[in-house]
Specification:
Helices cover 50% and strands 14% of the residues. By secondary structure, it is of the alpha/beta class. The model has no long low-confidence stretch (mean pLDDT 91).
C-alpha cells in the first residue's frame, strides 16, 4: 500500500503522513521544504520517498506525476494550500495568483492525471483537502474561500461521474473548520474560533476516506454551523462572515 501526500512538511499533511505510516502505508511526501521532509522521514516507520517541489509552478505538477506515475499509488492526498487575509482591493495580486496556482491548479492537474490512472485500474482513493470555506463566501479571506469552493465542487462532480461509471475509485473532500496549523502565520491573520488539532483532523480525514465518504466535515459544531447557515439568506450570510473575518487580526 502506498500514498502520496502533498503539503506534507507541516500541519494536516504532516499528521496524515504519520497516521498513514501507522496504518502500514509506504509514502511519497511532497513539499517545498526538503529539510522538514527529511526530518519527518526519519520519524516514520514505513518506507518514505521525499520529493521537494514547489507546486505553485504548473510544470512541477506535471513533473511530480511523471516522477511517481509508476509507483502503484493507492491514495492521492491533495493537501498543499494556503490563505491570505485582507480586503480584496488591498491584498497582493501576485500572492493571490500563487494561491490560485496551488489551491486550484495543482489540485486540478494532479486529480486529473492520477484519476485517469485510477479509473483504468478501477481502484484508488483521492482525498482533496477543501475546507468548510468551500460552502461559503468569505469577505476578508475572499480568494481562499473561492479556491476552496472550486476544490469542493470539483470533487463532488467527479464523485457523481464515477458513480455513473460504476467505478470503484473513491474521491472525497475534507472540509475542516479552523485547524491548529501554520495557516495563520502564512495568511497573516488569526482565527477567532477554536481550532481543532491537526492530528485529529488528519485521522478523521483518512478514516472517512477509507469508508468512501464524499464529504468529510470534522467536528460537531462545524457540521451544525454549515447545516444552519443554509437557512440564512445570502446577504445575511455575507454580513455574518464579514464580522467573523473582521475579528481576525494580522
Amino acid at each position: 500500500m502506498k500514498a502520496l501526500v502533498t503539503g506534507a512538511s507541516s500541519g494536516i499533511g504532516k499528521d496524515m503522513a504519520k497516521y498513514l505510516s501507522s496504518l502500514g502505508y509506504d509514502l511519497i511526501l511532497v513539499a517545498r521544504r526538503k529539510e522538514r521532509l527529511e526530518k519527518l522521514q526519519k520519524e516514520l516507520k514505513t518506507k518514505v520517498r521525499i520529493i521537494s517541489l514547489d507546486l505553485m509552478k504548473e510544470e512541477n505538477c506535471f513533473k511530480l506525476y511523471e516522477l511517481t506515475k509508476n509507483e502503484n499509488i493507492d491514495i492521492l492526498i491533495n493537501n498543499a494550500g494556503f490563505g491570505l487575509f485582507g480586503m480584496f482591493s488591498k491584498t497582493d495580486l501576485n500572492r493571490e495568483l500563487e494561491m490560485i496556482n496551488l489551491n486550484v491548479k495543482a489540485v486540478h492537474i494532479l486529480t486529473k492525471l492520477f484519476l485517469q490512472d485510477f479509473v483504468k485500474k478501477d481502484s484508488g482513493y483521492i482525498l482533496n483537502v477543501a475546507s468548510s470555506a468551500g460552502f461559503l463566501s468569505g469577505p476578508r479571506l475572499n480568494t481562499y474561500y473561492a479556491t476552496k469552493n472550486y476544490v469542493l465542487k470539483l470533487t463532488m462532480a467527479i464523485y457523481e461521474e464515477l458513480k455513473h461509471q460504476n467505478s470503484h475509485v473513491v474521491v472525497s473532500a475534507l472540509c475542516p473548520g479552523p485547524v491548529a496549523t501554520e495557516f495563520n502565520k502564512v495568511a497573516h491573520g488569526k482565527f477567532s474560533l477554536k481550532e481543532m488539532p491537526s492530528s485529529k483532523v488528519a485521522k478523521i480525514g483518512i478514516d472517512k476516506l477509507l469508508k468512501k465518504k464524499l464529504l468529510i466535515i470534522p467536528g460537531f459544531s462545524n457540521k451544525m454551523g454549515l447545516f444552519l447557515i443554509r437557512f440564512i439568506p445570502y446577504k445575511w450570510q455575507l454580513k455574518i462572515m464579514y464580522r467573523i473575518q473582521k475579528r481576525k487580526s494580522g
